[in-house]
Amino acid sequence: MVKKEMKVTKASEHTVEIITNSGEGAQKCAQIFGQTCAKMGNGVWTVEIIPAEIEPPHHTVTSTSGNIIRFGTHKITNWGDQSKLAIAFNDQVLLSRHRLNSLDDNCIILQESMWENHEDEFIRRNYAAAMEEMSGKNYRFISVPIEEEALKIVTNPSHGKNMFALGLLAEIYQRDVSIIERQIANIFRFKSQKVIDLNIQLVKSGMAWARENLDFRFDIPSIPAEEERIVMNGNQACALGAIAAGMELCAMYPITPATSVSHELAEIIESYGGIVHQAEDEIAAAGVAIGASYGGKVALTVTSGPGMALKTEFLALAIMVEVPLVVLDVQRGGPSTGLPTKVEQSDLLSSIYGQHGDAPRVVIAPRSIEECFHSMVTARSIAETFRTVVIVLTDANLATGVQQFTRPELDIRWQQGPIDQSPVPEGLRPYEWDPETGLSRRIIPGTPSGQHTVTGLAHDEHSLVSYHPSSNELGMRMRSRKLAVFQSTLMPPTVYGDEEGDLLVVGWGSTQGAIDEAVDRARAEGRKVSSCQLTFLSPLEPGLKAIFSRFNKVMTVEINYSDTVGDPYITEETRRYGQLAWLLRAHTLVDIDCWTSCPGQPLRPKDIYRNIIAKLEPLQVVEKGEAT
Amino acid sequence: MSGLAISLLDLEVDSGVCLEVEDYQKRPGKWCAGCGDFGALNAVKRLLAKEQLQPEKMVFVSGIGCSSRFPHYVNAFGFHGIHGRALPVATGIKLARPELDVFVVTGDGDCTSIGAGHWIHATRYNANMVVMMLDNNIYGLTKNQTSPTTPQGYASMTSPRGSVLPALDPLQATLGVSNASFVAQTADWVPAHLYATLQAAYEHPGFSFIRILQRCPKFTPDVFEQQVKDPDLTELLVHEDGVDPPGLEKLFKARRIHNPRNIDDARSLARRRDMLRLGVFFRDDSLPVYDEVRAVPPVTPQEKINRLNKEFERYAV
């Protein structure tokens, strides 16, 4: 074979997709590739592409399972725009990615070669139709006999193609093979040496094929980190954060995309003196956590939107009786069953206001995977200090995104000391609210002379049921006061970019990376745009109105629904805003606009960028919700 | 009664302080005159005094309803929560603090209707607690609505022409659950039996479910009227492993020796409708107790940090 001239392209970052049927091992391939990139010093962000079903019919557009790996010389904070290279195990799963606009116009596609001339006419026809549909783009297709090559080494190609694909990537991106080998040994550490050897052999055969047949390579330089780092997804970070925070009981009911938090915990928490209790339903999970916390344990309940809805009554009870509780809500698309495996930021208002009566609670939203870890420590501390409910809002983007971050320095104070169980002095009332702060001593069962009955009914400082107007008003005031006291301990949020300008983009939670990247692009063009990512949503961080006043326009960017003015019936009077926009408008009386989108995917920097530009130049109309 | 004397003596040696029955009353019950809940409260206070339980080492957990006001009247820690959800809270308390004595007070609406899911699963968890299900066959606090245990044909505000379905039988339901370990039935109008049943439930290691038939003078004054008037309509299930309170032989002539370890007999007796049966239908001390099987040894904060630092190695870049 005549070797073509090798072309090595240097780039500061690249995005790769591995697209397969579910069950073909894309996640393992991507996990090892991402880990290898991280270990070599690249910034990495990976995103799972997962169907809601366990193993839908193969070779269809709905069976797509895969992974996106964005890696670069610099820190990577989000999944970016489009993929520059893809490995596809069949035409239909590839087509699904094409239809979602996930592939760059010039994407290099390494495609399984066996379908084009397959003996089954149905498969051939579908293949031809798929290729026709994708012909409008400038994709570069390269046929690769993935299954044929894998079959030279293993008998079941479903357990081999992924490692062959990993070999292709290893060669294209010139990865350090010894790191890959160590990763394989680690991932298959519970399997036999034979399995490990076979997998390494598959990787090497992929590399050899690429060496023989591909005329391009990419060079993504890396800067090895100085500090120690760990790499994990947001759910793993929350689980380890819960351990670091000394949490002793996690009560949960299975719900996507939150469940893997409890998988992580179930694996290890007992060696930390705690347990995972899988309750009979979401309501009971909240009840068990509240009971355990009332008993003096540090308790957590983990759920997603539908579970939050079910837990509402219990959360209000915890607030009413002032039992500390941490609730982790890994948000997914709603309403109803919605988009179980997909991202949305639409539980904000229901988390803050979702109950009958007034039940003030703390709501925080970590902005990165690193913050997922630390949010659990923060949440516990707030919950116990203020004897209230703290809701931590992450989402499917953080839950399954994988990123490296500085290895946390664990602090023994995060575990916090035991609760004061000294005898309760005569005359101390169970809710002896400090008139300034609303705080009172937490008296747990077993405390001598502490016996009293807590009740969800309106009660006075003695914890006696009371229907008196004045005691009801006092209880309301004291429970609310605690939020104001907590807010007084917060710092104003930082502004990314200049402190003043034409436009301030305000986001919350997981969108930070994409928003900041979009702002960088606009600023590189000389636009006067800054961003501000909120993490404390209830109570809101201080100083917002002053920050907003230094910008001509303020706009939230969120992954949830909002109306577009100009749509039928939608006017300034009827328009429904994004959830953070609602909150900030009410809070600051500033005329805050929003751009929101709910495509069931993380936001892309380029879409945010386009809408920043559109906001600055109102004549340019951008179609809302068109996320690509 | 010799048991009582011994246990009182033991405690006097221990602490030197003897708590009387009335010491366990926080404040008088605020139920209607003639309400069966008073009988349950009296029996509980007697049990606590007999066992000399420390008020701060017990938690009474309840949901919503007339009977769920119970914790407000007992000198102990109390958790008066939300409708139907006493059992998850009690399970959480027991998981957190297995050394505490946990009592759950619930009603037919609270337990067998809105809290039915928790009832089934708490029975299966078999956490060590006493559950008193005060069954007056009606929703009382919300003023006279049909409950799952309301007799078929019985009129209420929501079924003015009579309840259309056969009543749910809490005994059969509980006896049908895997890992059910103690199921008994007693009645507020037989105080000696109520007290003895509570005592047996308290001593049982596991989830002790007692259905206490409870008269509601306001809304169901007649559902148990015949049985209250005519003891011949009631059969006592007696056994050395169940309850056989002294002094009831003359009043209740119908006595059946029932070995409560026999689940088939228990289910069969629960199904029969010929007489009202009071006694321990089933008990099995050998079944897994949730708070025991989930117990894990404590770990010091420093050791947790050491282990977590090691855990990080798995994720090291």
CATH class of the largest domain in chain A: Alpha Beta
- The SSE order of chain B reads HHEEHEHHEEEHEHEHEEHEHH
**CATH H level, superfamily name of the largest domain in chain A:** Pyruvate-ferredoxin oxidoreductase, PFOR, domain III
Percent strand of chain B: 15-25%
Oligomeric state: heterodimer
Report, as a whole number of angstroms, the end-to-end distance of chain B. Answer: 70 Å
CATH topology of chain B: Rossmann fold
Q: So how many helices of chain A?
A: 19
Which bin fits the share of residues in helices of chain B? 25-40%
Computed over alpha carbons, the radius of gyration of chain B is: 21 Å
Strand order across the largest sheet of chain A: 7-6-5-2-4-3-16-9
Instruction: Give the helix tally of chain B.
Output: 11
* Biggest contact: A-B, 69 and 54 residues
- Largest sheet composition of chain B: 9 strands, mixed
- Which class best fits the helix and strand makeup of chain A? alpha/beta
Q: Any guess at the CATH architecture of the largest domain in chain A?
A: 3-Layer(aba) Sandwich
Category from helices, strands and their pairing of chain B: alpha/beta
Q: Whole-number average pLDDT of chain B?
A: 94
Q: What do you see in this structure?
A:
The complex is a heterodimer of chains A (628) and B (317). Chain A has 628 residues and is α/β, with parallel strands linked by helices. Helix content of chain A is 36%, strand content 20%. Chain A contains 19 helices and 22 strands. The longest helix of chain A is centred in the N-terminal third of the chain and has 21 residues, at 193-213. The model of chain A has no long low-confidence stretch (mean pLDDT 95). With 317 residues, chain B is of the alpha/beta class. Chain B has one domain: Thiamin diphosphate (ThDP)-binding fold, Pyr/PP domains (Rossmann fold, 3-Layer(aba) Sandwich). Helices cover 34% and strands 18% of the residues of chain B. Chain B has helices at residues 2-15, 37-51, 86-96, 108-114, 116-125, 170-175, 191-203, 225-229, 263-271, 290-293, 301-313; strands spanning 58-62, 77-80, 101-107, 129-135, 138-139, 145-146, 182-187, 207-213, 234-238, 254-257, 276-283. Chains A and B meet through helix 1, strand 9, helix 8, helix 10 and helix 11 of A and strand 1, strand 2, helix 3, helix 5 and helix 11 of B. Strand 17 of chain A pairs parallel with strand 2 of chain B.
